[in-house]
Design brief:
The chain is an alpha+beta fold. The protein has a single domain (24-148), classed as Alpha-Beta Plaits, CATH 3.30.70. Helix content is 19%, strand content 23%. It is built from five helices and five strands; from the N terminus they run ααββαββααβ. The protein has helices spanning 24-32, 35-38, 92-95, 124-132, 135-138; strands at residues 49-52, 68-75, 98-105, 112-121, 143-148. The protein has a five-stranded antiparallel beta sheet. A hairpin with a 6-residue loop joins strand 3 and strand 4 (112-121). The longest helix is centred in the N-terminal third of the chain and has 9 residues, at 24-32. The radius of gyration is 15 Å and the shape is globular. The chain starts with 23 loop residues before the first helix and ends in a 7-residue tail after the last strand.
Length: 155
C-alpha cells in the first residue's frame, strides 16, 4: 500500500547531488567526502542511478515569481516494478513547474526503484496536489517524500 505524502514538508534530505560519476565506487567515495558527511550530519546515504527524463538540469530552469522549490522522492521496491514512469507525460500545469524529473535505478542491479523530481509551487499543499494529479509519474513507489528544497543548496 502506498504511503501518502506527509501533511507538511519535512526537513530536507540533507543533501542531494545529481552528478555524472564513473561507477558506484566513485559515487560512494563522493558521498563519504561530502563535508556534511564528514561532520557527522548524515545518518545514511542512498545512491541511485538517475535517468533525466526532462533532459535539463536545475540551472536550465527559470524560477516562477515567488514559487517555492520542492523535492519529491518516490522510491522502494514494489510489486508493480514501477510501471509507466518513462511513458508518463506530465500535464501542462505540472510540466511548467517541473525543474528536473527522472527515474531512479538501484546500484548496481539497475532495477527500477523510483522517481525523483523537483518542482516549484506556491506552497507544499499545491505541490502535493500537483503530484496527486499525476499518479503515473509516481505510481508503484511505496515510499514517498516531499521536502522543502533550494536551488544549489538547502533551505
Amino acid at each position: 500500500m502506498d504511503r501518502p505524502f506527509p501533511r507538511t514538508a519535512r526537513p530536507g534530505p540533507g543533501s542531494l547531488h545529481v552528478v555524472d560519476l564513473a561507477n558506484a565506487e566513485v559515487a560512494q567515495a563522493f558521498a563519504r567526502n561530502d563535508p556534511y558527511h564528514q561532520a557527522g550530519l548524515f545518518s545514511e546515504h542512498l545512491i541511485w542511478r538517475f535517468e533525466n527524463l526532462l533532459g535539463r538540469t536545475m540551472w536550465d530552469f527559470t524560477p516562477r515569481g515567488d514559487d517555492l522549490p520542492f523535492l519529491v522522492l518516490a522510491y522502494g521496491e514494489s510489486d508493480s516494478q514501477l510501471p509507466g514512469h518513462q511513458q508518463a507525460t506530465p500535464t501542462p500545469s505540472l510540466a511548467s513547474r517541473l525543474v528536473v524529473w527522472g527515474t531512479l535505478r538501484s546500484v548496481p542491479a539497475q532495477r527500477p526503484c523510483g522517481v525523483a523530481l523537483a518542482l516549484v509551487a506556491p506552497d507544499v499543499d499545491v505541490a502535493r496536489s500537483l503530484i496527486a494529479d499525476e499518479p503515473a509519474m509516481l505510481d508503484g513507489s511505496p515510499h514517498k517524500e516531499i521536502h522543502a528544497w533550494e536551488f544549489g543548496g538547502r533551505r
